[in-house]
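## retry 2 of 3
previous attempt timed out at serialization; input unchanged, resubmitting
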Amino acid sequence: MSLFNVDKDISIAETLPAEFYTDEKYFELSKNKIFSKSWQYACDTDKAKVSGQIHPFTLLEKYLDEPLIITRDKSDRLNCLSNVCTHRGNILVEGNCIEKNISCRYHGRRFDLDGKFISMPGFDEVKNFPSKKDNLPEIPFDTWEKFLFVSLNPVSPIRNFIGDMCSRMSWLPLNEFIYQPARSRDYLVNAHWALYCENYLEGFHIPYVHNSLNNVLDYSNYKTELFQFSNLQIGIGKNGEDCFDLPKDSDDYKNYGNNISAYYFWIFPNLMFNFYPWGLSINIIRPLKKDLTKVSFLTYVWDESKIDKGSGAGIDKVEREDEAIVENVQIGINSRSYDRGRYSVKHERGTHHFHRIIAEFIG
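## retry succeeded, writing output
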């Protein structure tokens, strides 16, 4: 059996080998093989709402470490550009600002807000200058409502990653969702990033790890749906629990009448969009080391009156429970006696799907 062979038949398949999580070479290999080729959540478009606004950010800081900027130019168009000067590599923009153009404070090179080279002092005698190489490189990006995604080297169009989520949740007024930094937070988890994702991708552990969540979810009706580069877990609330008021004409019409308390969308490899009746929690799983992961919860509130109700309540408690079990797995997976496991056909379809995509990207 090859190292990254995960059989498409879940009933006979074995999981990824422990080596994937414990060997530094696969952690490094995943940067270009997985993360640079997939789509990452960057920010919401409120960061560049008016002409002249520039929002600098680092894509997956301490892992990909790619300096980028989002700009809104004079034509009111959004752009995603490299934040590195094409002269000598200086970082151009260090904080959110509103400017007419982008100027390098090292040697004075200037760029338009769409990345086009404008001018450079002291270059009068330089031949074949300027050229296209003097423009700021454009980075592939796309938006869904107010949410902006980027990819350094996309293996596939973004709709193959988020298209099912976009259509399924199109009935929600996402532009009315307001980011609340006070309700958002970061967690450090002493485990491999993929172990954290695997835990998210199966509801199998809920009755054993999350007592409070199990009390509000109807575990017997927990469902998983698989798509090309994403999947969806649907949490059905027990009678009386806070649930979505799903319109009859929504793209999720087949679930009309069900007590849906949560839509848990996962986007390969490391994004989680958790929709609750109160709003949305975007979880970004950021690899730091092969045994250390930063998990960022970004909270967008739609209905304040439903906060702390149903399956969307007590998110911090659920996260701490997940951290404890995943950190335990991190210890166990380093054991000399462990190599691979098997899948529950009924409960671990999401994890099997995840492993199959990893095997495709790495192998």
